[in-house]
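Quick one, T. Sequence first:
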Amino acid sequence: MKAGRFLAVLLLTLFFCTGQVSAEEGRVTAMQKHQAWISALITVHSGISARMMTSALNDMEVSLALDCTLDYRFSLSIIVGKREDRGRFFLRQGPSEQPVQLRVDRNNIYHAMALVSEDDACIYINIDVGMLDRDFVEQMRNGRYLRIMVFNAKDAIPRFSLQGFTAAFNRSMALLRQVNKSQNDDQRFFKAPHDDRPVPRPPRQQDDSMYF
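Structure tokens:
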């Protein structure tokens, strides 16, 4: 498999394997590498999102995806390959909720909850970013490493490089702005007729002598 195709499949993995979309329905465009990170647009039946993705540095079969929708709602997910020992992550069989801790370098530790699910290939840890402080992304933009601990798995803490994250984040936001602008421009052609109709000019007053 060519490198570009492999990256495209990796970027779509969460959508395929969680049942959100089939391989035929998903599409990756505008993919670009930024050091340790990749940015791209993901198009599925539910809409368009920007995805920023990277893999763990410490020899783990673990990837991290930060998604942002057109209305700028974020979601953060960890993908764990089944070749990883689930016991290292203290993961139970079947869907469950697990506490997670996230930390950028020596900054404050963020506590959140994650929904854990799985299929034949991967385990998916979808983190509730609504519980994260808004400064978290800024810490990622300025930090070196992001570490995430699921439950109390101190022997299995994936470490993600943040080199290239700022470039991936900035590009993703620019792509979303372009898509929003394009969609807004297209919608102008389908306004109600009176929206685009020019304001009629008042009739010109004719001199009475013109009638004779």
